Amino acid sequence: MAVTEAADLSGVTIAVARASTQDTGVTAVAPADAQIRRFDDDASAVQALMSRQVQTIGLSNVVFSQISGVAGGRFDKKFDLSSQLQGIAVSPDSDALLAEINSFVTHSRTDGTPPAAPMARSTRCIRPGWASRCPISSRTPNNLDAAGPSGRLFIQGIAT
User: Fold this and answer.
1) 0.85 cut: is pTM over it?
2) What are phi and psi of 150, to 5 degrees?
3) What are phi and psi of 29, to 5 degrees?
C-alpha cells in the first residue's frame, strides 16, 4: 500500500488503541473518509492488523518493533505522526544513580543495546515525595540534551 502522508489514508481502514495518543494523532490527520477502528488496547489493534481486519495501524515505535519481531518484513512504517523527547531527572544528591543512568544511555546510544550489568537501584529516588524535592530542571543526565533532538525519540506512526 502506497502511503507516504496523511492524505494517502483516504478510504483506508486504520486500527488504533482507543483513547491513546495514537487515536488522537490519527484522528487529527486522517481524511474524513478514512475509517478509524478503535480497539480496547494495542494488542487488539495489532491483532486486527495481523488478521487483515484493517489495512493500517496507528502505533508507537515500541509496538512497531514488537510487530516487526513477530511478522518479519510483512509490515513497514509509512510516516511519523508525532515525536517527543524523553528525559530523566534525578534528585541533586543522587550522583551514583546519575552515573548509572549516564552509563546506560551512553551504552544504549552507542550500539542500541543496554549494558549487560543491571542498573543499580536507589530507594532514594522511588520513595513517595521524592519528586517534590527535585525540580525537573535541577538535574538531567549528561547524555540527554533536553534542548535538542539528540535524546531518544519516542515516535508514533502509521504502518501497513
Assistant:
1) no
2) -80, -15
3) -110, -15
